[in-house]
């Protein structure tokens, strides 16, 4: 055995684990089937702009330990996420806050906004929200649900809001203040120079083999190390023998435009049902770019099928039950630890995935 650990996947979970393991004197080999490290936080420089190739990632956390951890690998800028919603050409502030309520209803005070939301909640007669639609209407009323949530969510998840779990919408804050900050987090920012550099720094001094597909040579690769930390899809590991877990995938249509400013904001969500994409990301604004050109990505959400990139786990009952079966197989797997968004089939934010990798380090490395 050459290595103590084989880490499959050079995304955040794998890179954090590998870094900590090396720090504890363990020998580590990291492999990834892609030609680059970073997993889905990978950023690629185009026209001097760091393009978030696998979807926009905005780092935010309430956990000081995690904030200090990432700051050891990158300097974070003061980017604050304030997406704009475009509903058939009408613009609204996100998350739902006094600017949104003022634009929607002309209300000026928090009391007026609250009264409007209560009136719409009561008209809908929802006592205990059972699904995303009911949860959304109880939180912000029917008008906002219809214009800013329904279309976006049904495009994003490819499912009716009545068939989606309520917790998805609870990610979004609702505020009776004039505050367009999307996150309720104490710490927020984008690593200056891009996420790839940050992950490269985590992996410095560690052997990394790229373009290396674990599942194509599982036995040979496992034989290189005492233990394997696997961060790929849990169902793929088991050859999909119990069936496939569902994911939402995203297709990015990237365009370089010969102008310095396309939409004046990093994130614009298209919340109507008719626009086929969910949002447009203008990458330069994550880093206050001054480049003469701009790069935009239109995001088209689709049902995942084999061969696509899996992005969002679909956390409904059916998939939850299937995952529970895979999880019990995973627990029986000797010398293999499953972790991360794909390994645990969990809609993790970046800070949560880092926390989960550090927890594993605590258990595994002592
Ligand atoms: N959402 C919405 N309208 C928006 C933005 C978000 O209805 O303009 C809902 C949608 O259901 C989405 C959920 O809120 O899936 C969580 O959004 P978030 O921005 O956290 O998703 P992510 O950034 O992870 O894609």
Structure description:
- This protein is of the alpha/beta class and 366 residues long.
- Helices cover 34% and strands 20% of the residues.
- It contains 13 helices and 16 strands.
- It has helices at residues 12-23, 64-71, 98-105, 110-124, 132-140, 142-157, 167-170, 195-202, 218-222, 234-237, 317-332, 340-343, 350-365; strands spanning 3-8, 28-31, 43-46, 49-52, 59-61, 84-87, 90-93, 187-189, 207-209, 225-230, 247-257, 267-270, 279-282, 294-303, 312-313, 336-338.
- The strands form 4 sheets. A 7-stranded mixed β-sheet has the order 7-6-12-13-14-11-15. It has a 5-stranded parallel β-sheet with strand order 9-2-1-10-16, covered by helices on one side.
- Strand 12 and strand 13 (279-282) form a beta hairpin.
- Helix 1 runs parallel beside helix 13 (350-365) and helix 4 (110-124) runs antiparallel to helix 5.
- The two termini are 21 Å apart.
- The model has no long low-confidence stretch (mean pLDDT 96).
- Uridine-5'-diphosphate is lined by residues 85, 94, 148-149, 152-153, 156, 168-169, 171-172, 269, 271.
């Amino acid at each position: 055995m050459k290595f103590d650990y084989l880490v499959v996947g050079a995304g955040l979970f794998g890179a954090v684990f590998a870094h900590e393991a090396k720090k504890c004197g363990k020998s580590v080999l990291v492999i990834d089937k892609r030609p680059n490290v970073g997993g889905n936080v990978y950023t690629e420089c185009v026209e001097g702009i760091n393009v978030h190739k696998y979807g926009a990632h905005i780092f935010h956390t309430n956990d000081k330990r995690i904030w200090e951890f990432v700051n050891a690998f990158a300097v974070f800028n003061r980017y604050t996420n304030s997406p704009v919603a475009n509903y058939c050409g009408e613009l609204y502030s996100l998350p739902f806050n006094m600017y949104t309520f003022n634009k929607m209803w002309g209300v000026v005070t928090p009391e007026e906004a609250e009264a409007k939301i209560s009136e719409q909640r009561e008209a809908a007669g929802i006592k205990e929200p059972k699904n995303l639609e009911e949860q959304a209407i109880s939180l912000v009323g029917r008008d906002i649900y219809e214009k800013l949530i329904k279309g976006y969510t049904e495009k994003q998840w490819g499912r009716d809001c009545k068939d989606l779990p309520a917790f998805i919408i609870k990610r979004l804050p609702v505020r009776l203040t004039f505050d367009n900050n999307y996150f309720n987090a104490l710490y927020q920012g984008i690593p200056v120079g891009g996420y790839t550099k940050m992950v490269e720094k985590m992996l410095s001094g560690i052997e990394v083999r790229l373009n290396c597909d674990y599942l194509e040579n599982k036995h040979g690769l496992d034989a290189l190390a005492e233990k394997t930390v696997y961060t790929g899809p849990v169902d793929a590991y088991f050859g999909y023998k119990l069936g496939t877990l569902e994911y939402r995938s995203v297709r990015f249509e990237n365009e370089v435009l010969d102008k310095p400013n396309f939409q004046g904001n990093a994130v614009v969500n298209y919340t109507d049902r008719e626009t086929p994409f969910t949002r447009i990301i203008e990458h330069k604004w994550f880093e206050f770019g001054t480049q003469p050109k701009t790069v935009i990505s239109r995001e088209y959400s689709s049902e995942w099928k084999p061969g696509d990139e899996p992005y969002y786990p679909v956390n409904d009952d059916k998939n939850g039950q299937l995952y529970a079966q895979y999880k019990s197989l995973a627990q029986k797997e000797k010398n293999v630890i499953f972790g991360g968004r794909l390994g645990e089939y969990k809609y993790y934010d970046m800070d949560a995935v880092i926390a989960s990798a550090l927890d594993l380090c605590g258990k595994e490395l002592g």
